[in-house]
Structure to design on (471 residues):
């Protein structure tokens, strides 16, 4: 007897029976429906699930399933469906076409997803009522289950070459109309753009450095440049509260000494620059999240929520659909996880891999700051030459997974950070691009303006340090 509780859940036993009947009459059809990713559990009745499971097993063993072979295999399991039931499925099968079978699969999967959604939500309600787990653990578990369920709806990742070539042609036309070689978003620095071809959709970019090198400041310079292109930026500040990170944005954008912003004491020029740039700065499409604790499910949820809100709000300044365009995370090793709680290395690896997946799922670049370990200082104190003290991929703190997952890894280094006397400092910074899937590696020199936290690209061809227009 079938479980009566199934009657109140979404299901369509007639469609299930019709699909199974067609497969029993022509076992080769399973190859046509295999790509839909149907599982035996997607069938609402256990006897339907048993028949489908058997058809699937026979086909995967490189045999052709039919009514007799299925009945024979079913006889080997406990409590199999009656032979008459299997014969009736085949006898009552409708006249079909490939399009009809695809519709059957879509209906069965849709009903199954709804049942699974009900189960996930019911379990979450039950666990919350009984308080069997703390909120964070339960929230993460439920969110991950919902993400996995949503991914089943989009299992067809196989694209025809013709479709991909069409997309390539459209992209070439778009780039030609822009008269630009960039395939992604401009960072605001021409030489960095030349190396990377822009910050591309699906890319995970790492900006790494030791404390005090200015990786947050450099990231903010890039974020401001992106926002000025009328692109929406979401900035996760795990290390600093929103007001402090805002001060850095304003300091860079309005050229105001960061100390002036802290004590609210400005000189005349600073007041002029602040009020002269106030409205334009306030209207930049930048969104700051100051959560000191952030997990992958929370990151995904907040990003998708903002993206959905932006899509509902037309932006007259954008020629493309209004959406979330870029994410910054400051910084990677501060992210939490309810997975591998006692193992920081595995926790960072888990977060790194999932940030890359999120970038690909959202189709936007994600720029994450990362800390370096103390090996640089150890090399400085040893017998190694100063020239060998530049950061290396192996210096990334807590994980080797970061360099594997990232599409681009750049290190920020300021020799001034190790100099105590002001007169010895030359206010230079260097960006070492040590990994780049889309282009060359190398280094780029910058003028660093400490009072404003600005990074100004130096002229690569000049003997003297001439400031270029990029900033």
């Amino acid at each position: 007897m079938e479980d009566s509780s199934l009657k109140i859940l979404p299901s369509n036993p007639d469609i299930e029976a019709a699909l199974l009947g067609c497969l029993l009459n022509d076992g080769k059809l399973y190859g046509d429906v295999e790509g839909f990713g149907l599982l035996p559990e997607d069938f609402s009745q256990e006897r339907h699930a048993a028949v489908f499971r058997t058809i699937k097993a026979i086909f995967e063993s490189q045999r052709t399933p039919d009514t007799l072979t299925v009945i024979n295999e079913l006889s080997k399991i406990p409590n199999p469906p009656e032979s008459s039931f299997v014969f009736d499925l085949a006898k009552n099968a409708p006249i079909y076409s490939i399009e009809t079978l695809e519709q059957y699969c879509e209906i069965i999967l849709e009903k199954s997803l709804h049942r699974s959604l009900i189960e996930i939500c019911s379990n979450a309600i039950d666990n919350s009522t009984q308080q069997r787990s703390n909120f964070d653990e339960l929230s993460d578990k439920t969110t991950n289950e919902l993400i996995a369920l949503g991914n089943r709806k989009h299992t067809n990742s196989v694209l025809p070459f013709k479709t991909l070539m069409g997309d390539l042609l459209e992209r070439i036309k778009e780039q030609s109309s822009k008269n630009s070689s960039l395939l992604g978003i401009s960072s605001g620095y021409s030489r960095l753009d030349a190396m990377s071809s822009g910050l591309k959709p699906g890319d995970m970019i790492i900006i790494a450095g030791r404390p005090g090198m200015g990786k947050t400041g450099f990231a903010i310079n890039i974020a401001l440049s992106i926002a000025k292109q009328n692109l929406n930026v979401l900035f996760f500040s795990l290390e600093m509260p929103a007001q402090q990170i805002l001060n850095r944005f304003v300091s860079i954008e309005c050229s105001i000494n960061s100390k002036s912003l802290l004590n609210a004491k400005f000189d005349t020029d600073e007041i002029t620059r602040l009020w002269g740039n106030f409205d334009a700065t306030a209207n930049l499409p930048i969104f700051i999240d100051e959560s000191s604790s952030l997990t992958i499910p929370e990151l995904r949820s907040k990003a998708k929520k903002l993206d959905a809100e932006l899509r509902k709000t037309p932006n007259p300044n954008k020629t493309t659909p209004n959406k979330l365009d870029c994410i910054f995370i400051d910084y990677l090793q501060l992210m939490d996880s309810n997975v591998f709680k006692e193992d920081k290395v595995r926790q960072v690896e888990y977060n790194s891999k999932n940030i890359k997946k999120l970038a690909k799922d959202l189709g936007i670049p994600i720029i994450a700051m990362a800390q370096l370990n103390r090996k640089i200082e150890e090399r400085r104190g040893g017998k190694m030459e100063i020239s060998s003290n530049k950061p290396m991929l192996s210096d990334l703190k807590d994980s080797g997974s970061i360099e594997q997952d990232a599409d681009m890894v750049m290190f920020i280094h300021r020799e001034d950070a190790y100099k105590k006397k002001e007169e010895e400092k030359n206010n230079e910074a260097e960006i070492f691009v040590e990994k780049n899937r889309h282009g060359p590696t190398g280094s780029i020199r910058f003028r660093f303006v400490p009072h404003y936290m600005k990074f100004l690209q130096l002229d690569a061809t000049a003997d003297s340090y001439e400031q270029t227009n990029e900033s």
Remarks:
- The chain has 17 helices and nine strands.
- The CA atoms of residues 140 and 276 lie 45 Å apart.
